[in-house]
Design a protein that fits this description.
This protein has 128 residues and is an all-beta fold. 0% of the residues lie in helices and 48% in strands. Strands 2, 4, 5, 6, 9, 10 and 11 form a 7-stranded mixed beta sheet that branches. The protein has a 4-stranded antiparallel beta sheet with strand order 1-3-8-7, with no helix packed on it. A hairpin with a 6-residue loop joins strand 4 and strand 5.
Length: 128
C-alpha cells in the first residue's frame, strides 16, 4: 500500500513559479508510474501530467505543456511537478497519484480510475 503526501502548494501571482512535491512511502514507488491531476472548484478532476517509473516517458495535458514539468527521484521516493508562468486558471487542488504499472499507456493515463493510490491534495491559488 503506497501512501502519497503532496506539499509545495500555496498562493502565487501570475507569472510566478511553484514546485509541488509528492512524497511516497509504504510501497514500491520506484516501480509505479506517477501522475498529477488537478481539480478546480465546481469542475471535474483533470489530468495534468504523468511520468513512467524510469522517467523515460512523460505525457502532459495540452493546457499545461511547455509550462509544467513532471519529474521524479526514485532514490528519495519523491515526485515533482514544476509549474512555471502561473495563470489564474491554474488555481486548483493538485493531487499526485500512482498506478500499478511502470509505464503509462496512451489509452489510460488520463483516466483517474487507472491510478491506484492518491494523495490528499495541495491547494494552488493564483492571484490576479
Amino acid at each position: 500500500q503506497v501512501q502519497l503526501i503532496e506539499s509545495g502548494g500555496g498562493l502565487g501571482q501570475i507569472g510566478d513559479s511553484l514546485r509541488l512535491s509528492c512524497a511516497a512511502s509504504g510501497g514500491p514507488f520506484g516501480s509505479y508510474a506517477m501522475g498529477w491531476f488537478r481539480q478546480a472548484p465546481g469542475k471535474e478532476r483533470e489530468f495534468v501530467a504523468v511520468i513512467s517509473a524510469s522517467s523515460q516517458t512523460t505525457y502532459y495535458a495540452h493546457s499545461v505543456k511547455g509550462r509544467f514539468t513532471i519529474s521524479r527521484l526514485n532514490a528519495e521516493n519523491t515526485g515533482y511537478l514544476e509549474i512555471n508562468a502561473l495563470r489564474p486558471e491554474d488555481t486548483a487542488v493538485y493531487y499526485c497519484a500512482a498506478m500499478q504499472r511502470p509505464v503509462p499507456t496512451k489509452i489510460t493515463y488520463g483516466d483517474p480510475s487507472s491510478y491506484h493510490y492518491w494523495g490528499q491534495g495541495t491547494q494552488v491559488t493564483v492571484s490576479s
